[in-house]
Design goal:
This protein is α/β, with parallel strands linked by helices and 306 residues long. The protein is built from 10 helices and 9 strands. It folds into 2 domains: 23-55, no CATH class; 56-283, 2-enoyl-CoA Hydratase, Chain A, domain 1, CATH 3.90.226.10. Helices cover 37% and strands 15% of the residues.
Length: 306
């Protein structure tokens, strides 16, 4: 037996070769340090089964988790890739190329249309792993396209936010997306359609200061960081110690900034119920005329004279 174990088995293994063991079989929860098997991690939608900590979810997984089968993503409008020819430690074009190769996305948002629990919806999901989910011209155009599609299909518009704010590499152009996205939201509301925002970790900066806080209903995931400026900046400005849990979903819910804090596993059912309630008046009036979709001016369009 020793001869077989010590001599024959190693020879067979050498001839056949050993399969490499993947180094990503286990995930460590950043909140409680619990080790989670990767399959359990995926099936649980990246929520720790030990402490309930909600880890960040990729945009494609987000759409899969809330939308019914058969949904389709849309091709987003093209924008100039580097309008300011920006460069810091790297060229902006190189950063975009690296982010696209790493994530498989064109920019920091995916837009899809289909149904949620049988209710028609157009869904935009931010991708924080694409340059911190920052909002540049491409994201602004995507939200406008999502709003126009929602009006055309008479569907609810749902946006999942996960962003550090405006994209610094696009300067004033990125700031221009704040009023443009506000106009896109107004288009949906004027059509009498629901606009629901799901605030995920983190939602900050120019995204918070624009379309993210204009929803008919604001839902937040447990523990999500939501705010405009960072806590340290606020403390230095007001010269006061901020309370525990400041800018977290539960704190904002207690103070009326967020309507609901919903676990990720319950989001789909919650969204379906809300969309059904908010669209009930439209279902009772099927002959209601479809609202006209008005195009918004491009940020590159020259100003009219006079």
């Amino acid at each position: 037996m020793n001869w077989l174990t010590n001599y024959v088995r190693p020879k067979i293994r050498t001839l056949l070769g050993q399969k490499p063991v993947p180094d990503n079989l286990w995930v460590t929860c950043p909140n409680c340090s619990q080790m989670i098997f990767h399959e359990d991690h995926r099936k649980n939608l990246r929520v720790c089964p030990n402490c309930g900590h909600h880890m960040r979810l990729p945009a494609k997984d987000r759409l899969d988790s809330v939308m019914d089968e058969g949904f389709a993503t849309i091709e987003l409008p093209k924008v100039p890739p580097d309008p300011l020819h920006f460069r810091d430690q790297k060229r902006y074009t190189d950063r975009l190329r690296a982010a696209r190769a790493e994530t498989g996305l064109e920019d920091a948002i995916l837009v899809a249309h289909g149904t949620i629990g049988g209710e028609k919806a157009v869904v935009g999901a931010f991708a924080f792993d694409f340059m911190g989910g920052s909002m540049g011209a491409a994201v602004g155009e995507a939200i406008l396209a999502a709003a126009q599609l929602a009006v055309l299909q008479e569907a609810a518009l749902v946006i999942f936010t996960a962003s550090g704010g405006a994209r610094m590499q696009e300067g004033a152009i990125s700031l221009m997306q704040m009023p443009r996205t506000v106009l896109a939201v107004r288009m949906v509301k004027r059509a009498g359609l629901p606009y629901i925002v799901v605030l995920t970790d983190p939602t900050t900066g120019g995204v918070t200061a624009s379309f993210a806080m204009l929803g008919d209903v604001h839902i937040a995931e447990p523990g999500a960081l939501i705010g405009f400026a960072g806590a340290r900046v606020i403390e230095q400005t007001v010269r006061e110690k901020l309370p525990d849990g400041f800018q977290r979903a539960e704190y904002l819910h207690e103070h009326g900034m967020v309507d609901l804090v919903v676990k990720r596993s319950e989001l789909k059912a919650t969204l379906a119920r809300l969309i059904g309630l908010l669209t009930e008046p439209r279902k009772a009036a099927p002959d209601r005329p479809v609202a006209e979709v008005l195009p918004l001016p491009s940020p590159e369009a020259p100003a009219s004279a006079g």
